[in-house]
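Q: I'm writing up a methods section and want to include an example of the input and output format. Could you take the sequence below and give the corresponding predicted structure tokens, formatted cleanly so I can copy it straight into the document?
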Amino acid sequence: MPRTPKPSSLSRSEQTNIVMSGHINGAGRLFGGVLVEWIDVAAAVAARRHSGRDVTTAAIDNLQFKSAAYAGEMVVLISRVTHTGTTSMEVRVDTFVESLNGERRLINTAYLVMVALDKEGDPTPVPPLLIESEEEQQEWQAAERRRALRSERRRQAY
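A: Here is the clean output for your methods example:
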């Protein structure tokens, strides 16, 4: 059955959290594990929107902590599908701290690989990604390089 390509814009998700006292570590910063949980959920939302299926996380390919978030700050996560395989999708999640005046400061970028699941919990095909801009084409090409690196690491049992 042919799969109709879908644009990345249909998978886009934006989620906002306020850093509360239970989210911070001993240094008064957002605990990295809490942020990873938020990132995983944001990626799952984008992947579910793209695939129309339940999904599972196959890999967190790249996670770069650029800056901290502190108690009381708003954290905004923006996710979107950047690449598709047969049953997998790469999702980019950008995380920002948003000030009360609406300005955003990037604090994290992550790439996750999500796999679509059928009703039995087995991998199932996903729609191809429809590339609509030069930026999306560049993101696709970078995703191809990340995919090749993941394959090489698996081959080397790394």
